[in-house]
């Protein structure tokens, strides 16, 4: 037999495996690339092929993140984890935070104006009228917006060259405008009903809702519309830039908290726009220097025509959207665009409006003293280029960012690097390095037929969602859908229901496997359990191999999470069947028990893949040889709790020397462990009448029911506190009315000549103040004390002249502008003491309960 070098093979010589057989091509990792609209083989820029650079668009921090955002961030977190854990790449993951943007400025300003206005307008009926007026105007404005979009839609969609995808995008835009109109019309009708019910209540025709709840509902219905109207009237008056900074900082913190709650890995680097202003200015100047930007009235615009004229392509990501005014406008929120040369041009730098935060403008803006702020698109181009250089492996975002945001990012970067490293390939084909090699866009999360969004107000905040479901279940739900395609979330809960059912399947699988591993652990019973594989074991081993191959193939295929999950759940189904069969056979023949090592290998593999997706919490650490640790720990803890509980009961029954209150506290603590702490861990502890207990894993439905009950209890307590606050405010209002009346009477009595009437006036004033709980409790020298001194100094015949003169020195000192604070405090103390000494004997009983408290405050 010949060898590779032509020599004869010697007997016993090693032979390469597979020699003589045709070798199939190994499957390569592909990623669905929005740039090519197909799955491309993933080849990192790194010459060693292991280091990957990835830039992802983070949040514009103007409001709370919702479930649609969660879909994107969880999806990209899973893709990142798979690349790192399954394919062993080392990823530099950069995420931006947009903390300078039109939306942030607008939202912070209108929230400030609305809050200020509501504080200054306590009358609910006036607020209702204002909201109605604002909603009416808003409905009319939205009707005009819809009509304009419809007119443009018919103009663009009817063009002969209008592509199918562009027509679809335009149709969706029109549907969104119509949905906004319907929502505003509904809010207007509800507000009108609220006004009628409120008026009916005032007329005795119906019972009105509490003032607080009515106002809250009003703000839900038309607060944004009222705020918009206030902004149009008073927006330029908001000049405190800390309002914008605090607003952005608040929602940035909320976003990072949400990421942690969702179990997402933190980025390698977080780039905040406000920290990159100098780099952004320089980036704009370079684009202008390269001839692809122009200035107008202090703003700087990207010149798409000049960009094309320099052999660049505008429209790589969404060619169907290019030249669509409707679709391009999404990137220019709240910014006038009449100064552009061409409709598809966009702002690189926006000149500042009155009251808005602003920074020194780039040199190319043409105004040495000019100020403004960056456009949305340039921020990402500049920061990504600064941190990752002239090329990166992956850039990701939600599907709605492909156009215009990412399209414009690409154009800006190509314009910036225009003269660097350009050349020609063989055959004279123009060549330049790509700024991004792979664009990954996660599909929308749709709810009831529309994309979940803040503008439609059809969103569920992440925090609200996590009150109803575990982060693990949320991640399961997203992992079971193709990441690059739209996903529907229905109010009926079908999508979430399927994820919860799958979660129950996994919980049951792990719990059952752990119990069998503990029962048939060969380490605990060496030499006593059969180890040899039989047909059932060979079958399960084959199914494990098939699952591994299926998961690998799915993940290589553009990280097909849904396919990988299908393969994993098929393995779980096979393992459950194996456990059924072996449990039944072991009852008849002990040698036919489950083979623990094989079952452990299966559970560890399922836990491993779930872990690579970030789906954790099934106590997968128990899949190995220490299967009984959790059960033992729980039983030990439950036993300790039971002992403490029994001791507390016995102590109460036998009249122990211990205070009963302490024993009750012990019982309450034990019950809290049962009713709160253990359910939080997904465990139900049930007490039995005979003093024993049962431990069970809780289902997702049971946990959700408990959380719902806790939320209802919190809501009830908050309502109770709110009602108490309202009652206290009403009481204080009545007290103030009484005080006004009393002051009026006091003024008339003070004018009387009869000293007894004056003394009576002082007595009545202090007594009433005490009853109304309005007597100052901070030992301050307030108006009440001053009135007493004024009466004394007015020359009451019942007060000795010497006493009267004793008031004059401290009184003058107290009212002197030159006296120090220490001298004034001393004067206050003297005056309070003299009040007690100077007043007639009949006033002593009520003065003793008031004046000494004040004197104690000064004595220290």
TrEMBL record:
Q: Does the keyword Lipoprotein apply?
A: no
Tell me the HAMAP family matching this sequence: Cys_tRNA_synth (MF_00041)
Q: Give residue spans, biased composition: Polar residues.
A: 184-201
Its needed co-factors are: Zn(2+)
**EC number per UniProt:** 6.1.1.16
Listed GO CC annotations? cytoplasm
Q: Which InterPro entries match?
A: Cys-tRNA-ligase (IPR015803), Cys-tRNA/MSH_ligase (IPR024909), Rossmann-like_a/b/a_fold (IPR014729), tRNA-synt_1_cat_dom (IPR032678), tRNAsynth_Ia_anticodon-bd (IPR009080)
Q: Which residues fall in a compositionally biased region of kind Basic and acidic residues? A: 144-155
Identify the stretch(es) annotated as Disordered.
1-24, 143-169, 182-216, 708-737
One BP annotation, GO: cysteinyl-tRNA aminoacylation
Query: Which keywords annotate this record?
Result: Aminoacyl-tRNA synthetase, ATP-binding, Ligase, Metal-binding, Nucleotide-binding, Protein biosynthesis, Zinc
Entries under NCBIfam families matching the protein? cysS
Name-wise, this protein is cysteine--tRNA ligase
Q: Which domain of life is it from?
A: Eukaryota
Which Gene Ontology molecular function entries are recorded, alphabetically? ATP binding; cysteine-tRNA ligase activity; metal ion binding
EC class of the enzyme, as a word: ligase
Does this entry carry the keyword Protein biosynthesis?
yes
tRNA synthetases class I catalytic domain sequence ranges: 49-492
Organism per entry: Coccomyxa viridis
